[in-house]
Write a structure and sequence with these properties.
By secondary structure, the protein is of the alpha+beta class. Helices cover 30% and strands 35% of the residues. The protein has one domain: Bifunctional nuclease domain (Roll), CATH 3.10.690. Helix 1 packs parallel to helix 3 and helix 2 crosses helix 3.
Length: 162
């Protein structure tokens, strides 16, 4: 079963200075961090802030391709966690056909924001990721990280809160 999530915020990991996308279960207070690269975080932040680029960025181009091919992004799902790497898929609908495409979670999230479609996390992934750090080994313990993420307020999330 998949769990619908929303982006709770985008922030920097205080231990590693790597961007984190904080996903929150819409039905509970459970949060799940996903560490992403700087460029992917920028693509997500640009859409959160609704900044218009003078030319289409990669995720805008992808959204435009989907739309112009008469398809619709129905949902994105973070489907797995393998060797501390999250896996995701895009669910596209074109006419009567459903197409599932492999994607990086950061790209899937950036595209979901642009297409205004729901984001889901597989239940097993949520159970695993909310208890593991998924970040670099020198970071905080799982319990410290979970306590820190669950205790975040809007000021902590800075200008990228949702």
């Amino acid at each position: 079963m998949d769990i619908e999530v929303r982006i709770r915020g985008l922030m920097m990991d205080p231990a590693t200075n790597m961007p984190i996308v904080v996903l929150k279960d819409v039905g509970s207070d459970t949060v799940m961090p996903i560490w992403v690269g700087i460029f992917e975080a920028n693509a997500i932040a640009i859409e959160i802030e609704k900044v218009a680029a003078p030319r289409p960025m990669t995720h805008d181009l992808t959204r435009n391709l989907i739309r112009d091919l008469n398809a619709k992004l129905q949902r994105v799902v973070i489907t797995g966690l393998k060797d501390d790497t999250f896996l995701a898929v895009l669910w596209l609908r074109q006419g009567e056909e459903t197409v599932v495409i492999d994607a990086r979670p950061s790209d899937a999230i950036a595209l979901a924001l642009r297409a205004d479609c729901p984001i889901y996390v597989a239940e097993e992934v949520m159970q695993t990721a909310k208890l593991s750090t998924s970040g670099p080994a020198e970071g905080p313990t799982a319990e410290q990280l979970r306590g820190w993420l669950e205790g975040l307020n809007d000021d902590d999330l800075g200008r990228y809160k949702m």
